[in-house]
Design a protein that fits this description.
The chain is globular, with a radius of gyration of 18 Å. Helix 1 links the parallel strand 1 and strand 2. 45% of the residues lie in helices and 12% in strands. By secondary structure, it is α/β, with parallel strands linked by helices. The longest helix has 23 residues.
């Protein structure tokens, strides 16, 4: 049988692998013959993985300690870890969802990956339409290093609750993914971005609260009328990192059972009102930038 996915023997690193989409992704990679290293705040309990490494992805030192335990050559990276902001403060949420992925890419992946490598970030449907907000996101996206990124973020008001950090981080990561697809593409390294819709993970209750109730959360499930299973998100994630997607780079793939298409065609309204939320972030960010000139 032909190994179309091409994961056999490939060194793969998965963050957020102890539950939800990350766990499902790691399981699939093991089944496909990859050498899988799991990086998560809790132990990843999957038979067949190479190593489970505990890591606080909102902390630079913890990330450095984790990568000291990882191979010098990495074939595929899957940045799945994320926080909703419902149980964490603004900076912790933002650092886990954006700064960690940026730091890992610049500090480690660019040095440990070679031609044929693949990076797949996992943002969210909250990260859609990031192109409209590049002016406000760019100071954070292009800041050099962890400390400079945190400093750039600090110049913007930290909107309460920390759920706003989740949305802003996802937009910044989506922009960063597009930029790195261009830069790393020159070296034959692919970069893509998966934008999951509402999924039944360990953070279901948190997102339900963000949406304003179960009915509003289910309203974001498109024609499926149900939450996605973690495996239904892991499938596209694993595909993008595989040899099957060897000519695919710089792509945002929205996995939401047609929810965004329905909204764009006027068949439904966005119950979570993410466009309005982003408009608020935009206005506040613009004021902060004007103040700091």
């Amino acid at each position: 049988m032909q190994d179309y996915f091409g994961y056999s023997g490939k060194v793969c690193v998965v963050t957020g692998s102890s539950n939800g989409m990350g766990l499902a992704t790691a399981k699939m990679l093991v089944d496909l013959g990859a050498t899988v290293y799991c990086v998560s705040r809790s132990d990843t309990k999957i038979e067949g993985i190479e190593k489970s490494i505990r890591c606080n992805l909102s902390d630079k030192v913890s990330i450095d300690e984790a990568f000291a335990q990882l191979p010098e050559h990495i074939d595929c990276f899957f940045g799945v870890a994320g926080l909703s902001g419902s149980k964490t403060d603004y900076l912790t949420t933002f650092n886990c969802d954006f700064t960690a992925n940026k730091y890992i890419t610049l500090e480690y992946l660019e040095k440990r990956m070679t031609e044929g490598g693949a990076i797949t970030y996992v943002t969210s449907t909250a990260g859609m339409f990031w192109q409209k907000y590049k002016k406000e996101q760019s100071p954070v996206v292009y800041a050099e290093g962890w400390d400079a990124t945190v400093a750039a973020l600090g110049k913007l008001p930290q909107i309460a609750p920390a759920n706003f950090a989740y949305i802003f981080a996802k937009r910044c990561l989506s922009q960063f993914a597009a930029e790195k697809a261009y830069e790393l593409g020159k070296r034959g390294i692919r970069v893509n971005n998966v934008m999951p819709g509402s999924t039944d993970t360990g953070m279901k209750d948190e997102f339900q609260k963000m949406a304003g109730g179960e009915d509003n959360l289910l309203a974001q499930t498109g024609v499926a009328h149900r939450l996605a299973k973690p495996e239904e998100m892991a499938g596209p994630i694993v595909f993008l990192g595989s040899a099957m997607a060897s000519f695919t780079s710089g792509v945002d793939i929205c996995i939401d059972a047609g929810c965004n298409a329905m909204e764009q065609m006027g068949h439904k309204k966005n119950q979570m009102n993410i466009p309005a939320t982003n408009t608020l972030i935009l206005k506040i960010a613009q004021k902060a930038m004007q103040k700091n000139k």
